[in-house]
Amino acid sequence: MPVQEIPQHLQELRASFRAGHTRPMAWRRKQLKRLKALLRENEQALADALHKDLRKSFFEAWITEINFTVNEIDHSLTHMEEWARPRAVDTPIAYQPASSEVRKEPLGVTLIIGPWNYPVQLILAPLAAALSAGNCAVLKPSEMAPATAEVLGRLIPQYMDPQAVRVVQGAVPETTALLEQKWDHIFFTGSTAVGRIVMKAAAEHLTPVTLELGGKSPCIVAADAPMNVAARRILWGKLTNAGQTCVAPDYVLVERGAQDKLMAAIKSTLQSFYEGNPKASKDYARIINTRHFDRLTGLLEGQHVALGGDSDRDDLYIEPTVVTDVDLDSPVMQQEIFGPILPIIPWDTIQEAIDFVNDREKPLALYVFTKKRATSEAVLQNTSSGGAGVNISVMHLGVPDLPFGGVGPSGTGAYHGQAGFDCFSHTKSVMTKSALIDPPVLYPPYSDFKKKVTRTLL
Ligand code: NAD
User: Fold this and answer.
1) Residue 439 pLDDT class (50, 70, 90 cuts)
2) Which of 299, 353, 381, 400 could form a disulfide with 347 if both were Cys (CB 3.0 to 4.6 A apart)?
3) Per-residue pLDDT for 411 more than 90?
4) Is the pLDDT of residue 87 over 90?
5) How many angstroms does the Cα of residue 213 sit away from the middle of ligand 1?
6) Quick one: which atom of ligand 1 is closest to the CA of 406?
7) What percentage of the chain reaches a pLDDT higher than 90?
8) Percent of the chain with pLDDT over 70
């Protein structure tokens, strides 16, 4: 879509929103079912595109993108009427006879901007939330996953109501042009740096934003944790999509006495995941492009590589790599890694691990591996993160009733399940009072009698 056509599309969507086109529950249900059909009937085409962009295996594409989004849609189909229902609240006696209720209303025409790492899920799950709440949406897939962007751009007009959903393809100039428009909500998933740009642009029109950003998600491992389970769950979260996951464990803080045991467990887990050869495994993805490949191999410069370290620029392959004796001022500990490199840093007391986390930006996720509730509670109660997991990594995203979002620099707002419905809804407070009785107690002139009555009632 040429940039100059954007205002026209927006105007058309606004007209259909104003006409009430997207409000009826029947329309919302139909759109969610169409979206589900898009995903189910095109599993192979979507998985092929994801393979082309990121060399994702079919299984990974299905679990983390296609089926994940279908589950979100199904959850909305089951609960959206309940989420949309007005909720009565008490009205103080002084205002009686009257009633008060909280209503959910759609926001209007929304903009959804997606990143490249889960380019299906992170465009279509927010779309499902926007539609369930009765909104129109313009989608901007990431240009960095071009095969997926092309498939989405082709399928969405085939399946979805064109009076409510449009796709705009493009990179920075197109996104900049979109951000200049006045939206009713902007839902952005991507980096913290671009999140700032989005928030600034939204401030021009006082448009509310949801920012799903990134950061360095720590993983704390106590010596009492079952190391083989911990290693498997950490590496599964870290190496799915070759580490290019916003909630992947970025680094591990391990209790000093258990570091060798954890390293041994990591070594044997890697062997079992990829039969000793990740490069040959169809289950191991590739880095998105040479820019990120160079950034990641740059992070390894000067590091002590304890495991892995192999790479191939022509194949965009980076071996799962563990680094130890890490200089905390080096880039690998200063920026979000977003790749298959795992620094391991020892601690002596749990307070030291907690302080390590609190000395840095609030992360999108934090994981703790321990058998002791006192240890996990100490971490959960004394740190702040978008979400958290005890003896898991990444998996909490799959629980639709858990709101998903960051805190501070890792994001603003949340979605998934009801949180997604709420994110794309305005909560409107409505008070209704009978016009039949109208005692003049509240109206001037304020006589002593009225003051006395008011003081008693209010
Ligand atoms: P990105 O911020 O570079 O790009 C995201 C989107 O913004 C793309 O559609 C892109 O076209 C657009 N964009 C890029 N530069 C822009 C600019 N200058 N002006 C306007 N728009 C611009 O992010 P990415 O590289 O695609 O994704 C990786 C980042 O996203 C990581 O930081 C990761 O942690 C984060 N992420 C967060 C979540 C989450 O749910 N919280 C999920 C996935 C990725």
Assistant:
1) confident
2) 353
3) yes
4) yes
5) 8
6) 41
7) 94
8) 100
- 115 alpha carbon – ligand 1 mean position (Å): 5
Contact by Cβ (8 Å): 218, 363: yes
Instruction: Name the phi and psi angles at 379, rounded to 5.
Output: -70, -50
Name 430's bridge partners.
101
**Mean local confidence (pLDDT), 311-335:** 98
Q: Give residue 455's pLDDT band: very low, low, confident or very high (50, 70, 90).
A: confident
- For the question of residue 219 being annotated catalytic, the response is no
Pick from 133, 105, 115: nearest CA to 419? 133
Q: Would you call 246 a catalytic residue per the annotation?
A: yes
The token pair at 7 is 């205002």
What pLDDT does 173 receive? 96
Burial (CB count <10 Å: 0-12, 13-18, 19+), residue 277: exposed
User: Which CA distances in Å does 226 have to 250, 316, 354, 455?
Assistant: 20, 34, 21, 64
Edge-to-edge strands, sheet with 136-140 = 165-167, 136-140, 109-113, 185-189, 209-212, 411-412
Which helix (H) or strand (E) covers residue 251, if one does?
strand 249-255
Mutation test of ligand 1: which of 246, 361, 366, 423 has the most ligand atoms closer than 8 Å to its C-beta?
246
What is this structure's pTM?
0.96
**What value does the mean pLDDT take over residues 76-105?**
96
Q: What is the pLDDT of residue 145?
A: 98
Tokens of 422: 């709420």
Dihedral of the alpha carbons of 419, 421, 424, 428, in degrees to the nearest 10 = -100
Query: Is any ligand 1 atom within 6 A of the Cβ of residue 120?
Result: no
Q: What is the assigned CATH class of domain 218-400?
A: alpha beta
pLDDT higher than threshold 90 for residue 458: no
Give distance in angstroms: CA of 88 to centre of ligand 1. Answer: 40
pLDDT exceeds 80 at position 1: no
Q: Where are the domains of the chain?
A: 3-213+408-430, 218-400
Q: What are the Cα distances from residue 27, in Å, to 137, 164, 261?
A: 14, 11, 56
CA distance 323 to 300: 8
Point out the ligand 1 atom lying closest to the alpha carbon of residue 195. Answer: 2
Homologous superfamily of the 3-213+408-430 domain (CATH): Aldehyde Dehydrogenase; Chain A, domain 1 (3.40.605.10)
Rounded average pLDDT over 49-77: 98
Q: Which of 175, 194, 213, 245 to mutate to test the pocket of ligand 1 (most atoms within 8 A of CB)?
A: 194
